[in-house]
Amino acid sequence: MTGETNLEERRAALEAIANEIRQCEQCPLYSARTNAVPGVGRVDADIMFIGEAPGYHEDQQGLPFVGASGKYLGELLSLIGLSRTDVFITNVVKCRPPGNRDPLPAEIDTCVPAYLQRQIDIIRPKLVATLGRFSMALFFDKNARISKIHGQPRRADGRIYYPLFHPAAVLRNPNLRPVMEQDIKRMLDLIKEIEKGGIEDEPPPPKQLSLF
Ligand code: URA
To answer: Model-level pTM?
Structure first.
């Protein structure tokens, strides 16, 4: 089988998932959506960005990060010479929570194995950049605080997980801009590390010695 055929198969598999998402009624979010938002970008992207959930504009257009946060994400990508078409962009949940409320645990627990996990398995990104705490919580310690661990890569599953602030949080708090931009620029070094080959999984953190 040639690489191209394989790429075609992966593209078809990703599109099949997108169609499932557009018809999904597995959680109550479907009833209020205008459009589901499966995600957009390259099937063979090295970098995958995972946000939280579609907002108003994303729900209207069926595309992720097309509002103010998306415009800023585009600016951040341009800092490292990339554009939206070079990466894959999606969200933890694929339908807009009413009034932009936080996605509920049951919605996340339904949507992630049904769709996000399968998208990751097909795209096989070398670097997964999480945008905001909901996405971060899927791959990092649930109690971790984004203000503490942003910009600190974790190597696991043969790839790098990289926690970033959510662009909307940075737009709300301009003091975070230099921090966010530094974190994004550091991705260049991480990508070089990946390209040199071999991402070794980190050993799990040492078990705390019992004092008793
Ligand atoms: N915020 C998100 O988390 N995702 C989007 O797609 C848009 C805004």
So the answer is: 0.93
